[in-house]
Amino acid sequence: MQSRTAPARVRLRTVSRQDNPVPEVAAASAVRLALSRVLDPEIRKPITELDMVGDITVNEVGEVSVGIKLTIVGCPAADTIERDVRAATLGTAGVTAASIHVTIMTREERAALTEKLRGPGGARTMQFGPEALTRIYAVTSGKGGVGKSTLTANLAVALAAEGLSVGIVDADVYGFSIPGILGLVVNGQTQKPTRVDDMILPPVGYGVKIISIGMFVDDNAAVAWRGPMLHRTIQQFLTDVYFGDLDVLLLDLPPGTGDVAISVGQLLPHAEVLVVTTPQPAAADVAERSGVVARQTGQKIVGVIENMAGLSQPDGSVLELFGSGGGAEVVRRLSAGQDAPVPLLASIPLSVALRAGGDVGAPIVLTDPLDPASVAILRVAAQLAARPRGLSGLKLPVTPR
Ligand SMILES: Nc1ncnc2c1ncn2[C@@H]1O[C@H](COP(=O)(O)OP(=O)(O)OP(=O)(O)O)[C@@H](O)[C@H]1O
Fold first, then answer.
1. Which ipTM score applies to this complex?
2. Which of 191, 255, 351, 380 could cross-link to 203 by cystine, CB 3.0-4.6 Å?
3. For residue range 344-379, what is the model confidence (pLDDT) as tens digits?
4. Does the pLDDT value for residue 22 go beyond 70?
5. Does residue 255 sit in the same domain as residue 354?
6. Angstrom distance (rounded) from CA 67 to CA 34
7. Which residue's C-alpha comes closest to atom 5 of ligand 1?
8. Domain housing 110
9. Within 10 A of 287 (CB to CB), how many other CB atoms are there?
């Protein structure tokens, strides 16, 4: 789980008993203010806004008692929340000791929280309709193993590091690798989402909210679901998973042009598509097809990313393990007959560090930002971050004459 910045130290106004008959009340307010900087690690909002803070009492020697209400029994974030609450309380000037009393929300309190997060009635609605301002990128490829998941994960982390609120839907049923790449698999166990009644809170890795089919199947079991079940699952991810207000949602699609790609096309026709290919001509052929299918469902292609390009050798030569030219070829084909040409966003070289970082759940855009592959991925992230949040389909407040 991501650690968060330590809450800033809040200064208690020095209050004498003459100025204010109840300085303990002022102290309790100062503690509450400090707690407004403690975020719930899963919901990523201040715990004070989520009504998770109960009574705060302070005695005349500065000993504070804080009541904390967790959403559910066994909440995986419990230890983090308790630790952060204690730190924030003790960081408040004048506080000499802190005791934290943890209880669980009542059914009514949970329902109120769900309503607060989802809106009136706590309705389960599609969070990423055309009116949403979230930029949605579906990452697709013609064939498997071209590095689509590795790039999706690293792009997401790079965007989150730029301060954007980012989520990933890992819809790669046959190779759900995002949790592993982003450190959510520990001792072979994939971190599961927390359920608050019918609301699912996605685990967070490196600041990115992640939901994956891999979190709902027994450890590493293969998924042999048919189209309708896959469709329902993707739909449920987009409705029941609480992502909050995202700037960017990335979808890691399975390779090819199968059921999931079509479901995503139907559910999110306003999503934009990033096509990943390798420099190999055979990969370029199938990558073009995945772009064409996306277009048929109304999705726009943002650009092509060529991955696994030439690896520089110590003697200065470049090892082109997968040949060259695949990215340019996909761009040429997808641009044919279009008003605006499809850009080649980057050519990302083969990189041992990129592969190794994926294996241990440590994305190289953070651990090794100067690796040539990181530099290329960060450049793509900067291009995506610079695009404004989606406005397609929004009714503009303009009255036609
Ligand atoms: N630029 C690169 N250099 C070296 N290794 C890479 C690079 N990109 C990806 N890899 C490695 O290639 C393998 C396949 O990558 P990844 O799982 O991301 O592909 P994918 O397209 O998502 O595959 P699938 O769709 O079949 O799951 C992984 O071991 C990954 O670490």
1. 0.98
2. 191
3. 999 999 999 999 999 999 999 999 999 999 999 999
4. no
5. yes
6. 14
7. 355
8. 23-118
9. 30
